[in-house]
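tool=predict chain=A
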Amino acid sequence: MGSQKPLLEVSGVTLQYKTPNLLVTATYRVDFNVLEGDRFILLGPSGCGKSTLQKAVGGYITPTEGEMRLKGQVIRAPGPDRMMVFQEFDQLLPWKTVRQNVAFALTAARKLKGKEADERAMHYIEKVNLTKFADTYPHMLSGGMKQRVAIARGMAMEPDILLMDEPFAALDALTRRKMQDELLQLWADTRFTVLFVTHSIAEAIKIGNRILLLSPHPGRVKAELNSTTDPKDAALLEQRIQHMLFADEAKEIIDA
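tool=predict ok
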């Protein structure tokens, strides 16, 4: 594992964006590598730049400093080798069925067409347990089902890396837990690589095999941790992460 060449390399990345009144630094000199088959988590409090960092991996934001490489190639723009799944439920085309939504991504990217696109769409729709709803329109689906369609659409493209930005945050607690379990089962079946953003420590520990902990704004790397499936170890890891995230904040309050 140690000698495995990284799939994604993020080196000294500083990300900034402008508001009408000031220049905001979202992340500062962030470094990390994602290996093929990783369930890699970007974890940190709101405003630490984790979603901005993921958008940069997607090719939507250019680093102010540093660079990102996928398979050794510098990321300069969006591409079908990186697919994003967002937390919003309106990421599907409302006038297309589940099957058509998944197949449309393939035809729009000119990866497949016609029957081949439909067959691959159905393959991944089956993977997310929505075969019976293949000809259903989005407005007839629950929030969790819509997210399954979005995941199927992303996976149907068979990207090098699937980018998931708090995809379960808008779901109720029970549905969220079910979706986490389904994502892990899907990963066990296909071993895809995922870069997953969350501010939930419990979700990070459950889903990830590696966790990058980012400091409050601007986001800097505080630590990189390996996750665990042992419940006792998971509880200790959660306590450790909470301490690392909030110790500095508590110190600032005391010093003030």
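The beta strands are 8-18, 23-34, 39-43, 65-70, 73-74, 82-85, 161-165, 194-198, 210-214, 221-226. The chain has seven helices and ten strands.
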